[in-house]
Amino acid sequence: MTEKCKICLIRDMAEKADIYEYVKKTRAMLTDADRASDVLYESRLDICTGCDSLLAGTCRKCGCYVEIRAALKSSECPVKRW
Ligand code: SF4
What we know:
The protein has one domain (10-69). It has helices spanning 17-29, 38-48, 66-69; strands at residues 54-55, 58-59. Strands 1-2 form a two-stranded antiparallel ribbon. Helix content is 34%, strand content 5%. The protein is mainly alpha-helical. Residues 47-48, 51, 53-54, 59, 61, 66, 69, 77-79, 81 line the site of iron/sulfur cluster (SF4).
C-alpha cells in the first residue's frame, strides 16, 4: 500500500497560504456546471496525494497545481489516473 503524503497539497502548506487563496478563488469562479463536485474533487486529490508525481502541490507530469486541475469537472489527470 502506498503511504499518503500529508503535506503535498497547497492547502496543507502554511507557507503557501497566498497561493491557496488563489486556488480557492479560481475554484469559486467556475460555474456550477463546470466545477467538479466536492466528492469528485476530494477523490481526485486523494489520488494525487498517493502519486509519485506530486511535488509541493504541483504535478510533475504537467506542471500545474493539482488543486486547480482537479477543480474543473472535465479535467483529466495527464496520465489518466483520474
Ligand atoms: S494529476 Fe495525475 S500525474 Fe499529476 S499528481 Fe495527480 S495523479 Fe499524479
